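Weekly modeling sync, notes
Attendees: S.R. (lead), two postdocs, one rotation student

Agenda item 3: backlog of single-chain predictions. S.R. asked that every request posted to the team notebook include the full sequence so nobody has to chase files. The rotation student volunteered to paste the first one in as an example of the format we agreed on. Action items at the bottom.

Example entry:
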Amino acid sequence: MPELLIELFSEEIPARMQARAAEDFCGLLQKALAPLMTAAPRPLYGPRRIAAVGEMAARAETPGKEERGPRIGAPEAAIEGFLRKHGAARDALTQEGQFWALQKPGQVIEAPALIAEKLPALLRGFPWPKSMRWGTSDFAWVRPLQRILCILDGQPVIFPLANGEDAVHGLASADLTEGHRVLAGTEPFAVRGFAEYERLLRDRFVIADAAERERIIEEGINRLAAAEGLQVVPDRGLLAEVAGLVEWPVPLLGRIDDAFMDLPPEVMRTTMRVNQRYFALRHPDGRAAARFAVVSNIIPQDGGAAIVAGNERVLRARLSDARFFWDLDRRQRLEEFLPKLDAVVFHAKLGTQGQRVSRLESLAAIIAPLVGADRALATRAARLAKADLASGMVGEFPELQGVMGRYYALHAGEDVRVAEAIGAHYRPLGPGDAVPSEPVAVAVALADKLDQLAGFFAADERPTGSGDPYALRRAALGVIRILRENGLRLGLADLIAEAFFLYPQATGTTASPEFGMAVATEKLKTGWKAPSDSRHPPMVAAFAAGLLDFLAERLRVQLRSEGARHDVVAAVFGAAPDDDLVRLLARSDALARMLATPDGANLLSAYRRAANILRIENRKDGPHDGAVDPALLVAGPERSLAEAVAATRAAVTAALAAEDFLGAMERLAGLRAPVDAFFDQVMVNDPNPELRRNRLRLLNSLCAAMDAVADASKIEG
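Predicted structure, as returned to the notebook:
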């Protein structure tokens, strides 16, 4: 197939936008050229260019089709309008039944013509997060667009970007691009295909592939670090960003003044990363090294001495600023920052950070004994957890919240467990981040996340399919991971209700009738009933159940990412919603083990067969949910099945109550033999209506026995 190469060459594109723009461009290109391009092209991107390379057919013919027109005898104006719409003459019409019809011939689509037709509109409507206009044109791009390279099968495809009277600065496609602005100059050169494009760009000091630039940077700084017995602190995000800032990467090493080496390593790393895009280095034992790596975009004539010296001067100034905040913040105790939080808004609907601190203290005190933490220490840690938000260092570097609180707490002489809890309560920050394990830290971390979830759900600021601005999915996954990885047995429904009641909108004279009701009402509409032993008002219990559904869904997402049986969790949760996630997972694991056995798999098939029969027969004269009449059990297999179901239901109920989940599943799997015999030897829809009804009730009791364990309809496979 002919090769298509398109490059959009512009002024420097922000690194954070490049990868997404290249993917969007390839997806839009495939959609626009769909008649001839069946697979998405390969994306390429860099500081000054977004490109795509792929294959497409040279031509294609679309099949003809018949267009039905007005009814026979319709007004002449209707017929003329139909003909104008399709650009046809009157003699092209034929009569098909009661209507006029027009046979439209197929079209031959030529690739160059399709490209020239579709690309201008695609580029004018390109979805940049931010874009700009320049000159007098209405055309918008992330930065001024300078060239459009478009090559198909070695030949340029020429099309203007003009739109009506807007000439768009005279931009039109061609076969030209440019190399490195400094090392190769601005002289354009022509290409005839991707291989030549990649080779000629490399000759002009441009690495077209972002992945290759990342590899060059990573290998280069690792080599320089290893030569001095050091290691590079891993940072994939920074690596990808720097690869988007340079076209010809040249790694260099600089030195950090010894006067700054007493700063916390997190402060130095954040200063270097956020302000200058430098890579931090460390000794093999983990200590911060007095070195940093910087990546140049040119080949220095002096080996990099001038570039390194300039970056060292800039870094000294940045670290001096960090030193100022570090010294200033330590002049007061961490607790003295707290009054400032009363003026910091947490969320317009949820009050201030000062009010949040009070809630965290109360919630941490409730959670502490449940996780084996000292109540006084957990309360103290919760009180101080957000204090560093008012510090100068965190004001300058928000990424250091929690980290600086830990340092300032240790400096003020707080208990080490309190300090560590302050530093760890935001964790886990992502899939690769460790969860807190020390009980005080666990109590504060859970309090922080449950308060966040309860508050935003009660204010109806829930995540949507297109966004999660308050990181509630991450908070939910944090709760799940803390409980799973620490093996904690907690009743989440009660804790969610406690978190809900800590908001003034939920209690007393300031209670709002809207607070939490959207979630509760949605849950009640599903037919949910409050547990008989619930100690909370029905609407609050419904709110907690709604939020618990969200947590269960996040658990299934996590299990899916791990390759585990997430469908089994959905089945168990559907049968008996459980707010003890560790118990829920143990029960699900036992069910998954049973389903992996021949008895379990066959029993699931039998259940589905019984459920299908019941669904069909219930439509006729159901429901068939009454008690089974022993006197009507005339066949041996149905008597055996009835006895087995009754015994199994009692045994399974007892085993589940004792949390003997494996035992419960073993008893359930024991139904396989009597179920097989029943279906082999007994006709369910017997001509005798009484026997038929009784056998349907027996099948219903079989399904009910399994439904007590899991909603088998949610089990895949």
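Discussion: group reviewed the output briefly. Residues 305-329 form the longest helix (25 residues).
Action items: rotation student to repeat for the remaining queue; S.R. to check formatting next week.
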